[in-house]
Specification:
Blueprint: H1 11-41, H2 48-55, H3 59-65, H4 69-92, H5 99-114, H6 117-132, H7 134-155, H8 161-185
Helix pairs in contact: 1-2, 1-4, 1-6, 2-3, 4-7, 5-8, 6-7, 7-8
């Protein structure tokens, strides 16, 4: 019985797209696994091999995407920044309304987020890594700089530089309070913020 001929598919055209999607999926899986390994095992137990093993890929495959532990941590910090920027947009919206109310919402979210099992531990481990590596320290500085300025732009109305300065001061204070929340409440099993 004759078979119907299938149209020729160019492997060259199909290959790169599949590789690009698969490569991005692998990178995403590695970053997600890296966050979990860092949270679960701490900076001392954070190895590329442990990250690779946790998702069932070879160390060589992981190193193809992230040649060093530092390069992986830098991308993890950047991915966390992108997530936070999205969260700020969701909390404050395009028009945050009353400035005092918006700052209170931001403060409450920041304090509560800081003591969640994932983010409370993640940031403590990132701080520990940054104490021993200048590149990671620079990535953490970038994280704070690039997360604070968009919030200031969302909250400061118009081009009033004095208002922007005051808002920036309050946002820095919120950062300090939320980071302090990690110290006060971050290691407690019932990590609930005592703030209303």
């Amino acid at each position: 019985m004759p078979t119907k001929r299938q149209p020729k598919v160019s492997r060259v055209a199909a290959g790169p797209r599949r590789t690009r999607v698969s490569g991005q999926m692998t990178r995403d899986a590695i970053i997600t696994a890296a966050r979990k390994v860092l949270v679960d095992h701490g900076h001392a137990g954070f190895t590329l091999k442990r990250v690779a093993d946790s998702i069932g890929i070879s160390l060589g495959n992981l190193c193809y995407h992230f040649p060093t532990r530092v390069s992986l941590v830098e991308v993890l910090i950047d991915r966390t920044l992108q997530s936070y920027l999205g969260r700020f947009e969701a909390i404050l919206g395009r028009d945050p309304g009353d400035l005092s109310e918006a700052l209170c919402k931001l403060l409450r979210w920041a304090m509560e987020d800081t003591v969640t099992p994932t983010y409370g531990r993640l940031f403590r481990e990132l701080w520990a890594l940054s104490l021993h590596d200048a590149s990671i320290a620079a990535a953490m500085d970038k994280f704070y700089d690039e997360s604070i300025e968009p919030v200031v732009r969302m909250l400061a109305r118009g081009g009033d530089t004095e208002e922007a300065r005051r808002v920036r001061d309050v946002v820095f204070l919120i950062c300090a309070i939320s980071e302090g929340s990690a110290v006060l409440f971050g290691t407690r099993r019932d990590a609930e913020i005592q703030f209303r």
